[in-house]
Amino acid sequence: MTQDSDLFGQIPPPKPTDRLFFALFPSEEAIPQIVKTSQQLRDQHGLTGKSLSNDRLHVTLHHVGDYAGGLPDGLVETVQEVASKIEMPAFDVTFDRAMSFAGSPRNKPFVLRGNEGRAGGLADLMAFQKEFYLAMCRAGLQGPRANTKFATHVTLMYDPVGVAEQTVEPIRWTAQDFVLVHSLLGQTKHIHLGRWPVQI
Question: How far is 47 from 194, CA to CA, in rounded Å?
Answer without folding.
Answer: 34
